[in-house]
Amino acid sequence: MKTIPSERLSVSIAKPLADFIESYKARYKLKTKSEVVERALQELQNIDMSYQYERAMEEYINSEEVELLDSVSGDGILPETNLL
């Protein structure tokens, strides 16, 4: 298993969030608070990536390129045949 390099950070957060981290850690039997924070950041990263893909798709749809791709998107595809 490949180990990802880590970096030590020190952050200050509101007490209710710190309490949530502790309860989440206990509920999901995680070893460290860092694991909780990593999960939260990974989820934020996924949300951001989805947002970026959505923006890129909107930009693409509103561009002239969409018509070009639609005009050739079926090139090379043969009609479906039953091979069995």
Provide a concise account of the structure shown.
This protein has helices at residues 15-27, 33-61, 65-72. By secondary structure, the protein is mostly helical. The chain starts with 14 loop residues before the first helix and ends in a 12-residue tail after the last helix.
Largest sheet: none
Low-pLDDT segments, ≥5 res:
none
Mean pLDDT score: 87
Shape: elongated
Taken as a percent bin, the fraction of beta residues is: under 5%
* Annotation field: number of helices: 3
What share of the residues lie within helices?
Answer: 55-70%
**Total number of strands:** 0
Rg, nearest Å: 23 Å
Structural class from helices and strands? mainly alpha
Element order: H for helix, E for strand: HHH
- Intertermini distance: 42 Å
Could you please describe the fold and organization of this structure?
With 84 residues, this protein is mainly α. 60% of the residues lie in helices and 0% in strands. The protein has 3 helices and no strands. It is elongated.
